[in-house]
Amino acid sequence: MAGAPYERGRGPAAGEQLQQQHVSCQVFPERVAQGNPQQGFFSSFFTSNQKCQLRLLKTLETNPYVKLLLDGMKHSGCAVNKDRHFSCEDCNGNVSGGFDASTSQIVLCQNNIHNQAHMNRVVTHELIHAFDHCRAHVDWFTNIRHLACSEVRAANLSGDCSLVNEIFRLHFGLKQHHQTCVRDRATLSILAVRNISKEVAKKAVDEVFESCFNDHEPFGRIPHNKTYARYAHRDFQNRDRYYSNI
User: Fold this and answer.
1) Predicted TM-score (pTM) of this structure
2) Helix crossing, 64-75 with 226-244: angle to 10°?
3) Closest C-alpha to 5, from 202, 116, 154
4) 22-74: per-residue pLDDT in tens?
5) Selected catalytic residue, list 126, 199, 207, 210
6) Within 10 Å of residue 172's Cβ, how many Cβ atoms?
7) Which among 59, 57, 55 has a CA at the least distance from the CA of 115?
8) Which residues contact 43 (CB under 8 A, 6 or more apart)?
9) Does the annotation mark 7 as catalytic?
10) For the chain, does the N or the C end have fewer beta carbons within 10 angstroms?
């Protein structure tokens, strides 16, 4: 599961950070103490860290969801640098990734991401959190409604609730199924990073659902699959050119 924001000790390089929120608490999932990344034998040719870096590069260069989000971040004044804003690390538990709000860095759990499709989903999910962190004063650690809103947006816009993914989960055929999936995935993401009851998490999602589900920035629509994401990216680029020429 992709995680929500959490803290890491070291600060960002001057002039390179995204819009930043200063926090002092540490919340689950904790990042493994930093030093040299654990390399662990992944294949005959690549370590897990190298494999993670290669998958990340392919995602950044080819995935239409991610390409749009990167353009959206740049347009909002938060340009993303691969080496500064992404980190492949070993993580505790079964967490796939997270957004570290204290350093404006996306953590990719190299020991839990085992294929390209999974990497695509995790990077997209966490970039939506990064986009929200850039454009709004998000209180990740003390305001559960802020966290719930970003998790609703991430579940809605990342493709995590696509028909294909839901069929793999054996979840399909329900009325308003996309909305149900978004609610469920957002609730699970909150529970992964907050020590609260499921009832409290669901209540937070319900309170923000209507407004946050209908907030489609920077996509302008719900990108149900890669084709929709490509159309959304094209429209975003055309819109950006239009406003730059006014």
Assistant:
1) 0.80
2) 20
3) 154
4) 222 222 355 555 544 444 444 456 799 999 999 999 999 999 999 999 999 99
5) 126
6) 12
7) 55
8) 51
9) no
10) C
